[in-house]
Design goal:
The protein is α+β, with helices and mostly antiparallel strands and 332 residues long. The chain is built from 12 helices and 11 strands. Among the domains are: 1-49, Arc Repressor Mutant, subunit A; 61-140, 2-Layer Sandwich (Alpha-Beta Plaits), CATH 3.30.70. The strands form 2 sheets. An 8-stranded antiparallel β-barrel has the order 2-4-3-11-8-10-9-5, surrounded by 4 helices.
């Protein structure tokens, strides 16, 4: 935290970029009352210290009808093959080490159930070689909140053709190299992808996705290595929580209330007995305990089941400070 300081410009820059990573350098220069060169240098340093992992986009998951799956896997550190296999699957967006009956929890973001079935077939082969050969799948049926951003329940399903999906997958890796030149393009793209980029107008595609509300927001992802966890003081710890309301007829009402909780980063409806599935971040166990007390005191919740994350293997998107998380939650 010393490198940042309590009210450092670097942390404030992370707040701004989380809310809109497409903002122009000139606008940042004016906001911070610094030269453009100083802003560029500060942003580059955030890259070099591996705090910012990449520019990112928030997709309209409801409109795209994206399928979110979570998989809990039993494995052990002596079997890294499963983890290495997961890291090579494009649809895997997070892999966390957890405490309990399972060692890993994995989030998949896929275009269709058919694609997930294909991924599952690949994983079955790998997991069959492991000692435990055990996993559990949680299928989500509704998304209310993702990466700290809320979704509009009025959005209708929007069909994309294969070409648009290919373009969207490229933009997810780095939506604009000119705006984010700190790293070389081959750090994000394969040679085949670079050739495709050279043959299409990515800027025009980007504008189209924004106009159609396929892309809801431009943000950044953070490396969450243990060395840097202290930087995000308000959200040092991560938890998965299953939530069961007192009345099962109130799932939607409860979910639409919980999305305004700043500590809830992701929120999904599932078909499980505990039908709400949330990703929670908190400063420490004491603050998490206060959050739990708040849930039971102020909401009609019957029971919860919590899993503690001990290791994050992928970069993550979340508000860098509680102040920013609150500012998003207050928006209607």
């Amino acid at each position: 935290m010393q490198w940042f300081g309590k009210i450092s410009r670097k942390m404030k820059l992370l707040e701004v970029l989380y809310l809109n990573s497409r903002v122009r350098i000139s606008a940042l220069s004016e906001k911070f009352n610094l030269s453009r060169q100083s802003i560029s240098k500060m942003r580059k340093e955030l890259w070099q210290r591996k705090i910012i992992a990449s520019p990112a986009i928030i997709l309209n998951q409801r409109m795209l009808n994206l399928q979110n799956y979570f998989m809990e896997i039993r494995t052990n550190p002596a079997e890294p093959e499963v983890l290495n296999k997961l890291k090579g699957i494009p649809e895997v967006v997070s892999v966390d080490g957890i405490i309990g009956n399972y060692a890993l929890i994995v989030k998949f973001e896929v275009r269709s159930k058919q694609r997930f079935a294909e991924i599952l077939s690949e994983l079955d082969t790998q997991i069959a070689r492991a000692a435990f050969q055990s996993y559990r799948i949680i299928e989500t049926i509704e998304v209310y909140k993702n990466a700290g951003f809320k979704f509009d329940s009025k959005d209708k399903v929007f069909a994309l053709n294969d070409k648009k999906w290919e373009d969207l997958n490229l933009l997810k890796k780095n939506y604009n190299l000119k705006k984010w030149p700190e790293r070389m393009e081959n750090e994000f793209f394969s040679q085949k992808e670079i050739e495709r980029i050279n043959n299409i107008n990515l800027s025009r595609e980007l504008d189209w996705f924004v106009k159609e509300r396929v892309i809801l927001n431009f943000t950044i992802s953070f490396n969450t290595l243990p060395l840097f966890m202290q930087i995000f003081d308000d959200f040092q710890m991560k938890f998965y929580m299953r939530i069961k309301p007192k009345n099962i007829g109130n799932y939607n009402d409860l979910a639409n209330t919980l999305i305004s909780e700043p500590n809830i980063i992701d929120l999904y409806r599932t078909g499980e007995d505990f039908g709400l599935f949330a990703i929670i971040r908190a400063k420490n166990l004491f603050h998490f305990k206060k959050f739990i007390y708040h849930l039971y005191s102020d909401f009609k919740i019957l029971d919860t089941f919590t899993t503690v994350v001990v290791d994050e293997h992928f970069p993550a998107i979340f508000p860098p400070t509680l102040k920013i998380a609150n500012s998003i939650c207050e928006k209607k």
